[in-house]
Amino acid sequence: MVGETFKPWQRESFYAIHVAHVCRYWKEIALNCPGLWVTPLFFSPGLLECMVARSRNLPITVSYRDTHTKHSPGLAAGVLDTVSSQMARIQSLELLELEGEFGRQILSRLTQPMHMLERMSLSFVKDVFESIPEGLLAGRTPSLKELYFECLYIRHWDKLPVGPGLTHLEIRYRENAGSEVELPSIDTLLQVLKLLPLLRVLSLAHCLPVPNLPEIPHQPVCPSLQRLCLEDWDEVMCIALEAVALPKARDIELRITYMDFEMEFLGMALDYLKAAWAEKTRLKVLEFDYAEADDGDFHLKFKMLSNDAELVTLSIPIPNSAYYIRPHPAYETDRLLTTIDDRVDFSSLAHLRLSGELAISLPRWKILSRCETLHTVSIAKAGVSDFVSALQGKFTVAGNENDRLPSFPGLSTLEFVEVDFEKAGMSDSIETRPATFRLQRALNGRPIGRRVSSLTVKRCKGFSKKDYSHLKWFVPKLAIQWDEYEAIAHIW
């Protein structure tokens, strides 16, 4: 378990050595258990050689991050010798952050077949752009299931060492690669994918072809595909989507870099998604997240339930520029919701999650409040005041003027995380009562059978012990999870 949790370059991975040093009895057990030594540790040439020998003839995992070879020539030679001498035994090969002469020497060793290899991951640092060698693995890897390349230029895509058993393929060029190297043609890429009937995961970053648009889009390949991730500039992505129809994968992620986010692209992506699944896609879970990601983009994600009841995901990251050009967070979010609403069916919406520097206007909340299937609303680090105002309302059921339902009639679970109940909303110019007071009134005023059963409040400002006590008193059956953040903050 420890061996699967930690990488070989982490000190915690010394589990096998620790077992061998408990006592003489456990030392004998460890020495006679080759399975403990199948992941060699690259901390010293002697340790590496010892572990390879103790693993006997079992398949081994070679996992190495090139961060110390500059300071340890002996270790670099040990890695090269291990890769060269154990080709027939390597089941998983992971070489990360390669660069310089060492990286080129590693590549030069990978020109003979590795019949037991099931997983290969080669990653060069971003400022290095090497080419894979001619005849990589001699083009023969009968057991290969997963192949990952990063910052490795592929000159001949039709000579990739892929076979019909491949299930994962991820190729990542660095940004702007198209201006430095020749990208594959659309026909070549499709021919490669046609050879992979079992492919479940496909990820292509900054290596999408820029084809001449066909009169009729190419039909998707890869019948077993479950996850598709495409990353590139907005113009390249648009051309690619027009040239090849989206496949029917359960999970689709379109990552756009360096683009002033436009609703037109979101609409186009949704249109392609509808074409891949059904004419009318029913929305099940909607997630808005403007929290900044590690790559500096802002992510919009929403999950949909297609007509064949398979859960699918479409994720479109929103670049930084979109965050700064919004006149108001609610305005941009309302535009997003309108674009989505024009193309998908909100009638089955069950879970709405809003997070980051976002807000939904009161008129839009009132539209969402009519959704009878919506049972969970989660708001994190976003505006909450307009939602509480909408929660106080009622609406008339279509076709029956005498039948009035409370807003969000199916609502059962509310979650607030890191929100400020004292922060005003867009509609609060005429509203002087605090959001916590209005929340109490709204929850207490709901009829039996339409009551919210669960409320979670974590790390929220403006929610006091008094508010907690009032809710417990006025809504006694409401299960409240509160971390007493406001009370603890006053103590500190």
Write up this protein:
This protein is of the alpha/beta class and 492 residues long. It is built from 16 helices and 21 strands. It has helices spanning 2-5, 15-20, 24-31, 45-54, 73-85, 100-109, 186-194, 234-243, 263-277, 320-325, 329-341, 362-368, 385-391, 435-444, 465-474, 485-491, and strands at 60-65, 90-98, 119-124, 130-131, 146-150, 152-153, 168-172, 201-205, 227-233, 251-257, 281-292, 298-305, 311-318, 344-345, 351-355, 376-380, 394-396, 404-406, 413-417, 454-458, 479-482. Strand 2, helix 6 (100-109) and strand 3 (119-124) form a beta-alpha-beta unit. The longest helix has 15 residues, at 263-277. It is globular and about 80 Å long.
In percent, how helical is the residue content? 25-40%
Biggest beta-sheet profile: 17 strands, mixed
Protein structure class: alpha/beta
Spans of at least 5 consecutive residues whose pLDDT stays below 50 are 292-296, 319-327
| Percent range for β-strand residues | 15-25%
The end-to-end span amounts to 41 Å
Q: Write down the Rg.
A: 28 Å
Can you count the helices?
16
Shape: globular
* Overall average pLDDT: 79
Give a count of the beta strands, DSSP E runs of length 2 or more.
21
